[in-house]
Amino acid sequence: MIRQGILKIGSLHPETCVLALNRYTSASAVQHDLKEVRPFHEIPGPKPLPLFGNNWRFVPGIGNLAHLDFNMLTKELYKKYGKIVRLSGIRRRKDAVYLFDPQYIETVFRNEGQWPRRTIFESIGTYRRELRRNFFKGVEGTLTTQGKDWQDFRTRVNQPMMQPRNTKLYVGPIDSVAKDFIGRMKDLRDKKGQLPDDFLEHILRWALESISLIALDTRLGCLQPNHKPDSETARMISAVHVILKALFKLDIQPYLLPFERRKYWKQLVESLDLFNEVAIKYIKQAQNRIMQRSPDAQKDMSVLETLLIKNEDPMIACVMALDMMLGGVDTTSHLTAKTVHFLSRHQDKQEILFEELKRVLPSKDQQITANNLEDMKYLRACLKETSRIAPIAPVHFRETPADIVIGNYLIPKGTDVIMGHRVLSNLEENFPEPEKFIPERWLKDSDQLKKAHPFVVLPFGFGPRMCIGKRFAELEIETLIANIFRNFRVDHDEDLKEEVQGLSYIANKLNYKLEERS
Questions:
Q1: 3-state class of 504 per DSSP?
Q2: 48-74 burial, b for 16+ CB within 10 Å, e for fewer?
Q3: What pTM, to 2 d.p., does this model score?
């Protein structure tokens, strides 16, 4: 039976083939030069101590890994143990396998099954499924559901979220938000053309304003000059920060002391309650507006309209809107900020981008269209290069749906697999001069693009469980960056600094110096 399983996968790399091992705990099958499959416990990694396991390694002041953020941890594991690493003996955590080989990663994604499992937001699942079950009534969304429940929800929301024609409906409105932001930039700069140190907070407001336009069918007013620090939208932005950090601590960080777990769970619940309270108010307002419209006004339905009209249960639309807003503030804002920052530090690349934008947009005030965006190939290359050097999400997660052989080791069903994309995308063997910002790598005729393994840089994931908001995120980011560099030459005197709290955030003071373009 094992032999038959091997014959089916002859086209795969011999070291990354998937075997139909079922309940077998060992295998002696050989395909050509394939070595004997080795058991799970032989995968290299930090050795757990009796009684203490590997928990001690993450205790501040004691452990040798406690001082490392998540980016540094994955890099350290790769440097010390190689392309496949097992981290075991962690309290409240299953054994996890870290992968640092694009062929291994491709094998995981190609064989993730009909219903890919990604158990990294369990705390939100507990919140929605148990703590606030009376409100959510069994509707959890795409973040936390698994199996057929996940597929059922994803099927209900996929069409309005993923079809290109639906994204194109928002090009004009999203461009309008971006142009309002350009106005704010002009107002914020001082007499020398310099932006304030807290400019990142304004980028976060832009991100919330943009995603709310898509998720809620409304402008929240985040870009208004009299925006108060204690406003509802400011509280929502703050809540998103806390939620994402708490999720990393509770669901991803290898080990957490018990008192820390209680602290972050409390923070998560309080922030989710606050975020949901404010967001749901706006969702209900949007629902009421839609119900009052005549049928003739629904020719080109928005995402929220489509979700409400095509699903009998309004909670489907509500949860999808919540998930869009939770996932669409920090991610888009920090990827945008990082891209602007790289371009501010590489004036030659910025000039190439400006020449492209001037060709596509002869007037800096003209409205961006879907066709314009298609022509901005160098802009997209800049985004891809930013995602290579400093991705917002340094890893991707999956749970193995069946026994699988990777790197000649048997990985049991149900194992958490952590794929180290940031480490791989910054290795010389994958990209020459990896520390340099070279957007030309991603242009159509580039030799590097032709040689690059397609599973090294995956900013939005891969397969059925890839980011459902991908198209809208790209639209928002591309539109704002096009407007910024069509209007300004941007300069900064610091190299990129990052802060890692699960996601990799930009940590610089973004007090850019602006010079207006003609």
A1: strand
A2: beeeebbbbbbeeeebebeebbbbebb
A3: 0.91
Per-residue pLDDT of the chain (518 residues; tens, 9 = 90+): 333 333 233 333 434 443 333 333 333 233 333 558 999 999 999 999 999 999 999 999 999 999 999 999 999 999 999 999 999 999 889 999 999 999 999 999 999 988 999 878 899 999 999 999 999 999 999 888 999 999 999 999 998 898 888 899 999 999 999 999 999 999 999 999 999 999 999 999 999 999 999 998 889 999 998 878 888 888 999 999 999 999 999 999 998 989 999 999 999 999 999 988 888 888 888 888 877 877 665 557 788 888 888 888 989 999 999 999 999 999 999 999 999 999 999 999 999 999 999 999 999 999 999 999 999 999 999 999 999 999 999 999 999 999 999 999 999 999 999 999 999 999 999 999 999 999 999 999 999 999 999 999 999 999 999 999 999 999 999 999 999 999 999 999 999 999 998 899 999 999 999 999 99
- Enter the tokens of residue 64: 């040798």
Q: What is the torsional sign of CA 324, 415, 96, 128?
A: positive
Domains recognised in the chain with CATH numbers: 2-65+84-123 (no CATH), 141-393+426-516 (1.10.630.10)
The SS3 call for residue 86 is strand
